[in-house]
């Protein structure tokens, strides 16, 4: 999607037959997600929802990463209300992906961390290059994943492994992510987008009503259903993130990240 001055915007949109390809396009920032990225993805999804000729979506990132998470520079300058509003918007974006009219295939190269991983967790199918890495490192900022990550990661890997990954901030390599059910298909780096397109083409060729019904019933099976981010687990996640953002540790973690130093957490 071009910006008003005609240059490439934060999300590129391309059609490949019945498949729409959405590419996060802030490679110098490892595709860190900011307000402009959320705006552009929301508009792109609106257009996809309105176009009956689109039968599947591929979501990927430009450059060396899928997305390294939220743009922490915004966090550093945001007050509590601004942070809460951004969190709510990002929750809604992940919900839009999870409940899109058509299946969404994530094509992951490099890092998918924080909010980037939360976008991946909202997708139906995940194709990853073998060098990709996934993680929710918010604990290192004194925060927690707040775009649905505490809920969706738990549904994917179970509470014990989810707690470890979020409390430690550890990363999962692509092979390990496939072993625990996050990654659907592994490939070599130069095969990533062609493979994702092949998967999306296959899904686009299936009966659309049946595909939609399968997606809805699977969501219901993992207690997401039509509640989405209005469910109690999601609400508590957002509340906890807001509390952590307002805490001394939360401010210290964000400031330390921006200043490129080790945070000094005090439990306050």
Overview of the molecule:
- There is one protein chain.
- The protein is α/β, with parallel strands linked by helices and 268 residues long.
- The protein has a single domain, classed as 2-enoyl-CoA Hydratase, Chain A, domain 1 (Alpha-Beta Complex).
- Helices cover 48% and strands 15% of the residues.
- It has eleven helices and nine strands.
- The protein has helices at residues 35-50, 72-77, 80-98, 115-122, 149-157, 159-168, 174-179, 192-204, 208-221, 232-246, 248-259, and strands at residues 11-16, 19-24, 56-61, 104-108, 111-113, 125-129, 133-135, 171-173, 185-187.
- The protein has a six-stranded mixed beta sheet with strand order 1-2-3-4-6-9, sandwiched between helices. Strands 5-7-8 form a three-stranded mixed beta sheet.
- A hairpin with a 2-residue loop joins strand 1 and strand 2 (19-24).
- Helix 3 (80-98) runs antiparallel to helix 10 (232-246).
- The radius of gyration is 18 Å and the shape is globular.
- It comes from Amycolatopsis eburnea.
- GO terms for molecular function: enoyl-CoA hydratase activity; isomerase activity.
- This is enoyl-CoA hydratase.
- Its EC number is 4.2.1.17.
- It catalyses: a (3S)-3-hydroxyacyl-CoA = a (2E)-enoyl-CoA + H2O; a 4-saturated-(3S)-3-hydroxyacyl-CoA = a (3E)-enoyl-CoA + H2O.
